[in-house]
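Bumping my old thread because nobody answered last time. Still need a sequence for this structure:
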């Protein structure tokens, strides 16, 4: 049973301003919660859904089929969205959704190795066909590479201590499981620090997951490709779950919506300098009190939306 409670569902769907004959793309199908609501609002329109996880696709396929057949599921990383959509004859899109990160079933499936709460082989691949897994990173990356990953992707204060402990342990035998890694992390972090700020392995696991799935680079590229494919008045809604993802989204939206610096002696802003997009959310939307109570995943969620307001060859 694939159970994932969609985050900021109403806010996202309302924010997309869906047209019944529009072309929509859900870049992160997951359990199909956002897709289902989009599909319900389409008559002659079509929905394209991406996910790199076959388990998610199987479950969502069934759920969406109960609504209509106006959808196509693409088993691919959304980093390839432009090529994949072009191949299907889609060049312009009325709305994109990115609901980043992993789904609850991925996280709660002990076998996938995403969680420090379940003992499993170190894995963390969203795409089960990918070769790089957390096992390779933990057992083959150099001390410097490990420190860099832990600093860059999780701001881990004890990055050096943890990397050193990993190096020491893997000299005897490979580190195979999540629980072995959790013990190594606990040992590396000084006792007083271990007792505050949540689970001691939280940051290391976040950093490894981002590295395994190259999450930040992939999102950055896909977001820019989505902007370039957006039709006039089309919108992009992005839900992020940690500050690094949100930074990319905020910065990108800032860049494409910013008013140009026009010299004061030029009274009218030339067309080619005008921003192509406007922000629909001035500040990120966060979960309501009710949603925070009902779904713990919503605590770190932030929703940002932009709309294309000008279309020309500049993109
Ligand atoms: C948070 S869940 C989406 C949940 C969905 N919105 C719902 O309401 O059920 C994120 C999903 O996106 C997928 N995903 C994350 N990054 C991806 C990427 N780069 N390419 C394709 N799918 C990705 C994950 O496999 C996961 O199934």
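Sorry it took so long. Here it is:
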């Amino acid at each position: 049973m694939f159970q994932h409670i969609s985050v900021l569902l109403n806010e996202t769907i309302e924010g997309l301003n869906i047209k019944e004959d529009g072309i929509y793309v859900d870049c992160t199908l997951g359990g199909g919660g956002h897709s289902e609501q989009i599909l319900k609002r389409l008559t002659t329109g079509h929905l394209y859904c991406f996910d790199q996880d076959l388990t998610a696709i199987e479950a969502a396929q069934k759920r969406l089929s109960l609504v209509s057949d106006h959808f196509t599921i693409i088993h691919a990383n959304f980093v390839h969205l432009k090529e994949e959509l072009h191949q299907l004859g889609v060049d312009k899109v009325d709305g994109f959704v990115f609901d980043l990160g992993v789904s609850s079933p991925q996280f709660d499936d002990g076998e996938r190795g995403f969680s420090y709460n379940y003992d499993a082989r170190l894995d963390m691949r969203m795409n089960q066909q990918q070769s790089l897994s957390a096992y390779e990173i933990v057992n083959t990356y150099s001390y410097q590479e490990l420190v860099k990953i832990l600093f860059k992707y999780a701001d881990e204060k004890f990055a050096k201590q943890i990397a050193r402990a990993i190096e020491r342990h893997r000299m005897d035998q490979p580190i195979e499981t999540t629980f072995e890694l959790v013990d190594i992390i606990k040992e590396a972090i000084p006792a007083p620090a271990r007792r505050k700020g949540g689970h001691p392995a939280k940051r290391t696991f976040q950093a490894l997951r981002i590295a395994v799935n190259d999450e930040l680079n992939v999102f950055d590229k896909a977001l820019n490709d989505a902007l370039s494919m957006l039709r006039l008045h089309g919108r992009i809604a992005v839900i992020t779950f940690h500050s690094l993802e949100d930074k990319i989204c905020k910065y990108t939206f800032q860049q494409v919506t910013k008013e140009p610096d026009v010299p004061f002696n030029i009274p009218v802003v030339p067309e080619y300098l005008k921003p192509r997009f406007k922000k629909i959310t001035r500040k990120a939307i966060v979960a309501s009190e009710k949603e925070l109570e009902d779904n713990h995943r919503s605590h770190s969620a932030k929703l940002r939306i932009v709309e294309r307001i000008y279309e020309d060859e500049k993109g």
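DSSP finds 14 helices and seven strands in the chain. Let me know if any region looks off to you.
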